[in-house]
Amino acid sequence: MSNVLHRRPGLRLGLLLTPPMLWLGVAYLGALGALFITSLWGQNAFTGEVERTWTLDNFRTLLDVDVYRVITLRTLAIALTVTVVDAVVAIPIALFMAKVASSRLKGILLVAVLTPLWASYLVKAYAWRGMLSENGLVSWLARPFGLDTPGYGVVATTLTLAYLWMPYMILPIFASLERLPDSLLEASADLGARSVETLRRVVLPVMFPGLVAGSIFTFSLTLGDYITVRIVGGASQMLGNVVYDNVGAANNLPFAAAMATVPVVIILVYLALVRRTGALENL
Amino acid sequence: MSLRALRKEFGAVTAVDGIDLDIADGEFFSMLGPSGSGKTTVLRMIAGFEQPTGGQVLLGEQDVTELPPFRRDVNTVFQDYALFPHMSVVQNVEYGLRVKKVPSGERRPRAEAALETVRLATYGGRRPHELSGGQRQRVALARALVNRPRVLLLDEPLGALDLKLRRQMQIELKALQRDVGITFVFVTHDQEEALTMSDRIAVFNDGRIEQVASPVELYERPASPFVAGFVGTSNLLTGATARRAVGDDGPVSVRPEKIQLHHRTDLGAGGHQGGGADGECVLEGVVTEVVYLGAATHSVVDVGDGVHLTVQQQNEESSIDHLFARRGERVVLTWRREHVVRLDGAGRSTGDGSGHNEEE
Ligand SMILES: Nc1ncnc2c1ncn2[C@@H]1O[C@H](COP(=O)(O)OP(=O)(O)OP(=O)(O)O)[C@@H](O)[C@H]1O
Ligand SMILES: [Mg+2]
To answer: CB of B124 closer than 6 A to ligand 1?
Structure first.
């Protein structure tokens, strides 16, 4: 048996790859396909039963009804803002960890970045709810500057999500910077570049694939979120809430499916844009 | 370029222990020494990557000790080449011009001309990872040379290449340096490489310079036992053995290829005991080992007092069986007195290369 496998590398590869490929094909892409098909079905207005007749009504509602357009745009704006905030905070942290900190400090910082991932998502979201409350930490810190807590709403949601997904941005950027040899920085200085120029022409391009990887995480995780916005978002809704409500309370599965394809499409567009930068090949 | 009392300490470790050196314009200058002797550290202080804990680096008349790397008219070829992976070859080469705001109309032709001098004219569009080791090395060279620095620093640039390519690059590098007329400071721990390429060589040992001299002088007249041992193979004679061979306590050294090896029977009985004919040194011994090296053979001869001398003979015959047959035989070693090098240690050289006195 093992002899046969040794002589036929194609067979070996086939056997190795079949189970994961099946999983990917059936469970993963299959589920996405099922989602899409469901979104093209209708619903009986009286019984609430799914009717297996083809219709574009769900997508029409989605485009025609103002509230859904607003929710889609709001979700998109939050996802983009979270991504930008995470990038702006993560880049200096990752740079410091990878290129400045001693190896001891680097280890400590790495643990510090990873530790929040071990805590429950809900605990962290409720912690932010507490901090953002009327007399919470944020309001106490902001008061000396004549400011106040943003209260529960879109800003609070953005802040909390940016916090939650921060490690997913820091780690890939850190990993890409770790692969950047110091000699490249020295070579740049040697050839006459000041630090700012080196940062722009050497560090940023080398870090870019990591940044892209991180942004895929923060962007898509935000698009799919519906819990944080329930906890700190006040009355604001995101795409995930619409899906959730239609699956549950409204019991309109086809419409929920139509709504759920929106983030999928947005992410596909985002990936297509990212692909054009060539960053995916360098991940 | 000059170094004045240059020092560098890393905590308790003294990496560079007071170095004085003057390097002339257009010179091919090598720094040779064993691992950890401080060569790289000196180079990094010249480039500005490392701040000296004492002393000065002068470039022409200017004291550049305090200047950051990007303000120094010096370029480096790194041991790992340090090519920017996200740029094409020609973008790598024009990087220095780009950050110095040379207009693009002038930049590209200069970069392409530099690539041509290293014979990579058609490779400009490739990425560094699409090149062989030797080609990368040449791109790194072009990238440094295109800036026309006063001094080019090279830290073991040939270390990663195989022997054949290495030989070829040595010759190319030397020819290139002659053409462009830029001062090269070349770090290596390969003594043969240093001897082939350099106008002058500084031998480093433990953060200090043992001797600065031309290759011929370094090889023929090493100033200290360390230099004699590090540059080429040499036979060190001290004490009683030295007294028997040359008439005093030494220390002295003799190169293996300067020693003649004779059968006792070739010389007539006992004629050479206790000092030979005028200008000849003589020792008797037993061949303990014969090592075949291709072009030459080394015979190791036990001359008593626990001293072993190495004798080198060219392999002129197609068979060396007669040499192997000598193992265990008693032989007589002779060499001319002028080949004896005194290693009194008095001649630890200073930076100007004239520190060694010939005193036979
Ligand atoms: N950043 C550093 N921190 C601490 N010690 C260092 C550092 N850099 C070099 N050293 C020490 O300084 C000494 C000289 O090192 P250097 O790299 O200059 O040697 P070298 O002559 O270039 O050796 P090699 O031929 O192996 O490259 C060594 O003992 C080394 O351990
Ligand atoms: Mg070194």
So the answer is: no
